[in-house]
Amino acid sequence: MLKLNPYKIGFRTLKTAVGMTLGVIICKLLGLDNYASSAILVVLCIKHTKMHSVQAIISRIVSCLLILFLGAAIFSLLGQHALVLGLIVLLFIPLTVVLNAQEGVITSCVILLHVFNAKAINGHLIINEILLLTVGLGIAFIMNLMMPSLDKKLKRYKNDIEHQITDVFTIFSNACSIRKDQLDIKFEALLFNIKKAKSLAFRDVKNHFVRNENSYYHYFDMREEQVELLKRMTHLIESISTDDPILGKISQLMTEIGSNVNSNDYTALRLHSLYEIRLSLDELPLPTTHEALNSRANIIQILNELEEYLNIKSQFGSLKLHSEI
């Protein structure tokens, strides 16, 4: 049974449609031959990011000018025959690889066929093809300058990830009060969310000509490090098998950390609380059973992981401060 995929008209589709229309209209008004081919240039150069667009345009300029003059010269010498057409392609494609302009091969073949089908290879043909390139690639460049801001999506990812981390700490806090052998935490979903957010942040970098990094990317990278620590803490909490007097304080600390995941100034206070718990551990009597000793060792390791978790956030600071740095 045929299954249809849901689809809505996106900004890139709209830019492609408008760009193709403008390209054909302008080239027709200029009286250019093969004016409809300008639409092909627009379609092939509309990209997801500004940087990719510039790279595509440069590649096509190099390859199209190369095939234009190469084709004009060879066709003039050997004639406009199918075998000559194949020979030109045989020479041309390796040249584009050497010049790192192979992305423009398809577009160049369109120009080559214009030369192949031309009644006469002269200055008029050369100027006509150069104007086609100028209009098509120029419109594609202008269309790609209009990129939607990704800040709202990045902020939404940030909030979702912080809520998910808060839920993890809530589960941790409850588990310290009521022991559980198995904690129901979906770290795969959280890590997948972070990967998508990092991908979007990297795409945002490519939408700026003068910026080569994105604070959101470093933020999500920082959260990814913290989640790895949370995964280790999960196994440690599940391994606690006895009631330790210090678990109540750790449960409270987990609640405080979970309530302030998005805060920038909470880390110093929470670290202070963590150090107080470590000091109070020294005042407790030593465990008398193997199970109690094992639980105490897991608790000490949990505090170490929590300290590392807080230090990672403390070193990062906030998105604003990280951007300034």
From TrEMBL:
Q: Which family does it belong to?
A: Belongs to the UPF0421 family.
Give the coiled coil ranges.
none
Task: Work out whether the entry's keyword set contains NAD.
Answer: no
Where found in the cell? Answer: Cell membrane
- Secreted is among the record's keywords: no
Please tell me where this protein is predominantly located. Answer: membrane
Segments passing through the bilayer: 20-45, 57-78, 84-113, 125-147
Kindly state which keywords UniProt assigns to this record, in alphabetical order. Answer: Cell membrane, Membrane, Transmembrane, Transmembrane helix
- Identify this protein by name: Putative aromatic acid exporter C-terminal domain-containing protein
Q: According to its record, how does it sit in the membrane?
A: Multi-pass membrane protein
Residues in domain Putative aromatic acid exporter C-terminal? 151-314
- Known InterPro entries for this protein? ArAE_1, ArAE_1_C, ArAE_1_C_sf, UPF0421
Quote the PANTHER family the UniProt record gives.
Answer: MEMBRANE PROTEIN, MEMBRANE PROTEIN-RELATED
